[in-house]
Design brief:
Chain lengths: 258, 258
């Protein structure tokens, strides 16, 4: 792991941000791959604080994740936007996004390794309290953070927002050591009811501490304004479910970071 | 509706309560039936405030509901513990409870009338803001407050805690005008998955604003310490799910009482 941005650039960033929210790009490695994430924090907060890993949706790390990280920093957390795909690998269209997401969904071991690499970057920051680290993810990133938990990673908790829900390796659910909060659109056409039931059964059998919230009227991508407002497309923003799921995450963090 | 307690008794009550939480018994009518509920409030709060109707589980109105009402009063709400069964009708065992609950579950029109009568008592209180009134219920009371919503009652919201979930009259769901929050034990053996799915489908078809939270590892009665701790009995207390569902209710009220 190394920090790309020189101090001068970081200072310039500090000068142009009116609030106390700061960010810097961090380059790091997983195996032979070079990844590039973004750390976001509030420099008005002193000392170690809980850390939250943010895992991107299928388009890769975008301004959307950085905005969520800023929202987390405003809550007093230090957030790190992980990069699963690799430095410079930023899909430009849904075909490219599908190819990238499919690659990692089809190789869960690689997906776990990539997300764990991001977790270690976050945990290694001086401002991070290493015993209080959680992970959240959106769509593809929701699947990714559940896989992170399945890898046995030491975490305070995991939150999936409209993640792809499945249970490809039920035996691994016994490795999950932290509470899971799964925020799910009740009308999400990309998650078959049978898949959701299979996941619930797998978590139940493994005696995992889990919660699943179904938001009526919400489809896939319900936290993402860029998804538009047409539920018939299967993915659409839903302001109500967005606000409710964020509030649920906050209450969950209040509990697990105690 | 009339207040049973004379002023002297009420004053005595006020003198013996160390905090500012006050309560009084209220006798009221539904048709020919006399019902007896309990109003609870914090007299350190001035002016109209949101009201919360609390509907009891199958054993009828007990200290359990009064304690929940006190917790609500401590949050600044005025709470009224409704009485569905009737003054003096307080089951002493599960056989009696089953008979009473069965009577009203089998006559949803009567159940709606009984719960609406309690709602009107709450709404008529001077300290209640009549435009901000919600209803919560436990087990049998969870079923009851969903029926209250189906009756078309003007409410800010409804919360069911381990309520019996079914959809006996799907056509009535179009009458539901308020958001529903359904807190459900994922391992509750008294709610068949098919019944839960039928309810979800009914609410979906009626375009109701609903949320359903499944708590992993929780069975029926998860908020009730008197249910014991043996999940194998199908009803048991679950501290985690109790605290989480109460936090979810609080966030829901923060939203709907705005």
């Amino acid at each position: 792991m190394k920090t790309i941005l020189p101090a001068a650039v970081l200072m310039a960033g500090a000068l142009t941000v009116s609030a106390a929210i700061q960010s810097k790009t961090i380059e790091y490695q997983q195996g032979e791959a070079t990844l590039e994430g973004v750390l976001v924090w509030d420099d008005a907060v002193s000392g170690p604080r809980p850390g939250v890993l943010v895992v991107h949706q299928w388009m890769g790390l975008t301004d959307y994740e950085k905005h969520r990280a800023e929202m987390l920093a405003q809550l007093g957390y230090v957030a790190f936007c992980a990069d699963v795909y690799g430095k410079g690998v930023r899909p430009q269209n849904t075909a490219e996004a599908g190819a990238q997401a499919g690659k990692y969904k089809g190789d869960r071991a690689l997906l776990r390794a990539r997300v764990n690499a991001g977790l270690e970057v976050l945990r290694a920051q001086k401002m991070t309290d290493p015993k209080r680290v959680a992970a959240i993810g959106y769509c593809f990133g929701g699947t990714a953070v559940i896989e992170l938990a399945r890898s046995g990673a030491a975490l305070s908790g995991v939150v999936s927002f409209h993640g792809g829900l499945d249970a490809p390796t039920p035996a691994d659910d016994k490795n999950i050591k932290c509470p899971l909060l799964i925020c799910h659109g009740a009308d999400d056409p990309f998650n078959k009811p049978a898949d959701v039931t299979a996941l619930e059964n797998s978590l139940r059998a493994a005696k995992v501490d889990w919660q699943l919230i179904k938001y009526g009227g919400a489809v896939h991508s319900f936290t993402q304004p860029m998804a538009g407002n047409d539920n018939s497309k299967g993915a659409a923003y839903n302001e109500r479910a967005d606000h409710r799921s964020w509030a649920a995450m906050r209450a969950f963090f209040d509990e697990v970071f105690k």
